[in-house]
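Objective 1.3, modelling of assemblies. Example input:
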Amino acid sequence: MIQTDICIVGAGPVGLFAVFEAGLLKMKCHLVDVLPQVGGQLTEIYPKKPIYDIPGYPSVLAGDLIKNLEEQIAPFNPSYTLGEKLTEVEKLEDGSFRLTTEDGTEISAKVVVIAGGLGSFEPRKPGLDRLLEFEKKGVDYMVKDPEKYRGKKVVIAGGGDSALDWAVYLADVASELALIHRRTEFRGAPDTAQKVINLAEAGKMDLFLESQVSSLEGDDHLSAIKIKNKAGEEVLRETDYFIPLFGLSPKLGPIAEWGLDIDKRAVAVDTRDYSTNVEGIYAIGDINTYPGKLKLILCGFHEAALMAHSAAKIIYPDKKTTLKYTTVTGVEGLG
Amino acid sequence: MLKITVNDTDGSSKELELEVSPSTSLMEVLVENEFDVPAICGGMASCGTCHVEFVKGFDKLPAKAENEEFMLDSLPNLVDHSRLSCQCKVDESLDGAEIKILNDSF
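Predicted structure (tokens):
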């Protein structure tokens, strides 16, 4: 089991900066995020967009802000569990918490800080009858282990980077591969799109453009799909797997089950320290709500600082926390 | 004043009267009026969480820019008259429109 002072749920900008504020007060942090990389929506959705309202930066690319935050918190040696969704938070008799991810990773923490933005990023699902019935029985929303598809018939749907990347990769793995896309142009990287077209011309995959999956067929396991083109013509295609790759969308998800006061998909907090109704659990950044709340990164940074000073009273109950200025104490070695 | 009708995900409907304000987006109007529109990217046409269907008035809207086309394309619940509300300016083109909020992924 991973032992830490503070377990931060969500490794976006506010979660990362919380490591810094906690570190100044000698608290060790572990970050958990459902995404395989840190940065939250900044790296997942808009890494190349400039942000203009970070104090001290007239303009900074979202991806660069995350890189800088990683560098800023490095002296405090945070640890990470990435690519796993935290599903359970259990409060133990001694007041500490046991957290469990859906992959079974366990974390023991004295304080939990939810910095989950708008929730955990989950795959967008197409609106198809019987989709839920075939989940894990032929319908996958992400490729975790490409070897699973070796020698199998596979259909991918989507026109973005992940659909194109996996189509290229699985062309050599699957026995038969089809890529279905609603339009004629691809949204993903042009060179990968060209590779897909070349593979289709070489007969390594079937490309269905201006088409969509219209129905799923099978008994205990998916066995075929119907593909409908713009003209309304339908074809039946046998397949072992259907992988719709339509990107990710945030859902509040398991956070709603943790006994916290939830108001309009956000966690209600006390603005003195951003604590929730459960002692020892805090919520900072876009995930929280309070009168006057502004969903700004800079507000999340402020919330992280106040949270850390309050959390220090839980982690070091016998010690008075004093405000340390980094100009006086520096940062190196504090962690 | 512009008039638009908003059909919410719960089937309820609300009429809104808006002043022309091309620097404001329809997404911002929906958020201000407390519709369940997460708009997580804040209006950059890069998250798809402000997706709406124009039940009426689609043809009056200015054409979509490429980034909106591409984002819409990634949405599983795309319909013929889909738009990202963050890319629709609050101007005359919206007058008389009727929209339906389509955030089925939430």
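Residues 125-246 of chain A form a domain with the FAD/NAD(P)-binding domain fold (CATH 3.50.50.60).
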